[in-house]
Amino acid sequence: ISLLGVGIVSTLGIVLGGCAVVFARPLLGIYNSDPEVIAIGVRRMYFICIPYFTGGIMDVMAGSMRGLGYSVLPTLISLLGVCGLRMLWIFTVFAREPSLDVLFFVYPLSWVVTSLAHILCFVKARRNIPAEDIPDSPFY
């Protein structure tokens, strides 16, 4: 089920994120007509919308861990990986290079790092399940 969930959120995230980027200017134009504001918004959408599917992977893997009975671990991983990494980034990297691109970059970075941590913990937790309790499914 986890593999299927990752496939679904990845597909939807890539398609919808791609659509958001393709139609970025008209979408942003709904809120503001200033070309400078729209240009900044388009830049942000490239950083956020294209890799947004990695946030979906992060959520699927955290939910899968909870389904295996581990509720505190995915919470701590998400807290440290998303909040902790972003705060660390702001006080170190962004403090040295205060630009919007540097600030925007931490979002996909935190999603990827947190997703990888969730995947590693899920694989380790799944190994603790007796073989006879694992469903016979290619998606599990």
Folded structure, characterized:
This protein is mostly helical. It has one domain (2-133). 78% of the residues lie in helices and 0% in strands. The chain is built from 7 helices and no strands. The protein has helices at residues 2-22, 24-29, 35-49, 53-67, 72-91, 93-96, 100-127. Helix 1 packs antiparallel against helix 4 and helix 5 packs antiparallel against helix 7. The mean pLDDT is 93.
Number of helical runs?
Answer: 7
Strand and helix order: HHHHHHH
Low-confidence runs? none
Class by helix and strand content?
mainly alpha
The average pLDDT value, as a whole number, equals 93
- Gross geometry: flat
Helix content: over 70%
Largest sheet: none
Gap from first CA to last CA: 5 Å
Cα-atom radius of gyration: 18 Å
Number of strand elements: 0
Q: Give the number of domains.
A: 1
* Fraction in beta strands: under 5%
Protein name: Efflux protein, MATE family
Transmembrane segments: 40-61, 68-90, 102-123
Organism: gut metagenome
Keywords: Membrane, Transmembrane, Transmembrane helix
